[in-house]
Design brief:
rod-shaped, single chain, mainly alpha
Length: 27
């Protein structure tokens, strides 16, 4: 269970970082 939760957190973090980079590029 813990490993799954950590995996989800890593995926969410990667998505947030990608979204942040896209926003910076558009500005």
């Amino acid at each position: 269970e813990h490993s799954l939760d950590m995996g989800i957190d890593e995926k969410n973090e990667a998505i947030l970082n990608r979204d942040r980079q896209l926003r910076e590029k558009t500005q």
